[in-house]
Specification:
The protein is an alpha+beta fold. It is built from 5 helices and 11 strands; from the N terminus they run βββββββββββααααα. The protein is rod-shaped and about 125 Å long.
Length: 195
């Protein structure tokens, strides 16, 4: 009697069907008789994709198939992980891989709730919070006031002054620098003034 091979996972068809045990760390999937997992569907290529168990996580890579391989509906451009809650599409036929993942990816998936709490906690620390300014929603909400009505006069109603505003005035002509004669005149005037 042949010894039972260790089952590393189970490929379950979505919607029902016979489960397929994954007994090797690397298994080819396709329509050919030489494939480890033979799927007898016309739209599945002879060698369609390869499943590999790497560091406790199942990975899938398309082998240039005609009808493609997807994970959660997204076509594969390179090798990608397939977690137990994700759908593996092989030429439109959907499967889940039932296994207990190991490694960092599995840790993050198992602790997804914790990650979301950490992200929410980080989101509470805005730049205003870090600067020590209150950002409570109650304090940010200001009572709504009616907009101030700005009365605009028509050109006929407006009084136009002929006075030029200061910011439109031409700068004064620069005075010529004082000469020695001007200096002496200023001193003479100061001396002549009674105190």
């Amino acid at each position: 009697m042949r010894p039972l091979a260790e089952v590393l996972g189970v490929l379950n068809p979505v919607g029902g069907g016979d489960p397929i045990p994954l007994t090797k760390a690397e298994m080819t999937v396709g329509r050919r008789a030489g494939c480890d997992i033979r799927l007898d569907f016309e739209n599945v290529s002879g060698k369609h994709c390869i499943l590999r168990l790497i560091n406790g996580v199942w990975m899938v890579r398309d082998l240039g198939s005609t009808n493609g391989t997807t994970v959660n509906g997204s076509p594969l451009a390179s090798e990608q992980s397939v977690m137990p809650d994700e759908e593996l599409g092989i030429a439109g036929h959907l499967y889940n891989i039932d296994y207990v993942p190991a490694g960092p990816e599995a840790f993050l998936t198992a602790h997804k709730d914790l990650d979301e709490e950490v992200v929410q906690e980080r989101a509470r620390h805005s730049l205003m919070d870090l600067a020590g300014l209150d950002t409570d929603d109650a304090k940010l909400k200001r009572p709504k006031r009616a907009p101030t009505v700005i009365e605009r006069l028509s050109a006929d109603e407006a009084d136009f002054d002929d006075v030029v505003p200061d910011h439109f005035k031409q700068p004064a002509k620069p005075k010529k620098p004082p000469s020695d004669d001007d200096f002496f005149n200023i001193i003479e005037e100061d001396v002549k003034k009674p105190k």
